[in-house]
């Protein structure tokens, strides 16, 4: 078997170097950089081109603190480290789109969550390319987050992303991934 063709040389280092960051420098993130991350996410594909993702950026420190105190209360307390991130991005989804409503019924796949994953990954990769650190946050009180953001019931807070400059001197853990031969099957399935 021939060795695989390497991914594009400009994007592969960003993919290899991205890590979840939970300790941030307190300096604010420039809005131009935040908007570059949102622009990368905006360009992500979505089921039926529904583009269900919207972004609520929390960069005012008092508002972000109040949001985090609500979203990370009770059983979600372990995620309170995000209070120290200079910015938290809430990815919200509109569930009114046909693909988002019918996908789970017909195909058994909630396509709007796949759309959030793709858009969010575009966001975090762009952040890494700009020298920023991110961490996906799935452990939060979605009901309290929606209520804090004053969103209607048709909009759901799907994911949060902590965003900021990584704290200087952080020791990165090596990336541990399974080898290709363990995760690729050809034509008839996986071994």
Describe the protein in words.
The chain has 191 residues and is of the alpha+beta class. The protein has a single domain, classed as NADH Oxidase. The protein contains 7 helices and 4 strands; from the N terminus they run ααβαβααβαβα. It has helices spanning 12-17, 31-42, 61-71, 98-106, 111-129, 142-148, 180-183, and strands spanning 53-58, 87-94, 133-137, 155-164. Strands 1-2-4-3 form a 4-stranded antiparallel β-sheet, with helices on both faces. The protein starts with 11 loop residues before the first helix and ends in an 8-residue tail after the last helix. The mean pLDDT is 88.
For the structure shown, list the relevant keywords.
191 residues, alpha+beta, NADH Oxidase, four-stranded antiparallel β-sheet
List the helices and strands and how they pair.
Elements: H1 12-17, H2 31-42, E1 53-58, H3 61-71, E2 87-94, H4 98-106, H5 111-129, E3 133-137, H6 142-148, E4 155-164, H7 180-183
Helix pairs in contact: 2-5, 3-6
Structural class designation? alpha+beta
β-strand number: 4
* Shape summary: globular
CATH architecture assignment name: 3-Layer(aba) Sandwich
The CATH topology annotation reads as NADH Oxidase
N-to-C CA distance? 17 Å
**The number of domains:** 1
Q: Roughly how much helix do the residues carry, as a percent range?
A: 25-40%
* Low-pLDDT segments, ≥5 res: none
CATH-wise, what's the superfamily?
NADH Oxidase
Structure, briefly:
With 191 residues, this protein is an alpha+beta fold. It has helices at residues 12-17, 31-42, 61-71, 98-106, 111-129, 142-148, 180-183, and strands spanning 53-58, 87-94, 133-137, 155-164. A 4-stranded antiparallel beta sheet has the order 1-2-4-3, with helices on both faces.
């Amino acid at each position: 078997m021939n060795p695989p063709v390497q991914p594009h040389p400009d994007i592969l280092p960003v993919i290899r170097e991205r890590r979840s960051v939970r300790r941030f420098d307190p300096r604010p993130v420039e809005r131009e950089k935040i908007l570059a991350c949102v622009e990368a996410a905006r360009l992500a594909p979505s089921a039926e081109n529904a583009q269900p993702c919207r972004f609520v950026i929390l960069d005012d420190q008092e508002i972000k603190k109040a949001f985090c105190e609500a979203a990370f209360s009770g059983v979600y307390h372990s995620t309170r480290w995000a209070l120290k991130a200079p910015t938290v991005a809430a990815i919200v989804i509109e569930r009114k789109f046909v693909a988002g409503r019918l996908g789970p019924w017909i195909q058994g796949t909630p396509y709007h969550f796949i759309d959030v994953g793709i858009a969010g990954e575009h966001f975090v990769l762009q952040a890494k390319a700009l020298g920023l650190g991110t961490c996906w946050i799935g452990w939060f009180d979605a009901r309290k987050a929606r209520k804090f953001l004053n969103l209607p019931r048709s909009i759901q807070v799907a994911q949060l992303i902590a965003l900021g400059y990584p704290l200087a001197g952080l020791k990165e853990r090596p990336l541990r991934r399974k080898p290709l031969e363990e995760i690729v099957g050809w034509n008839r399935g996986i071994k």
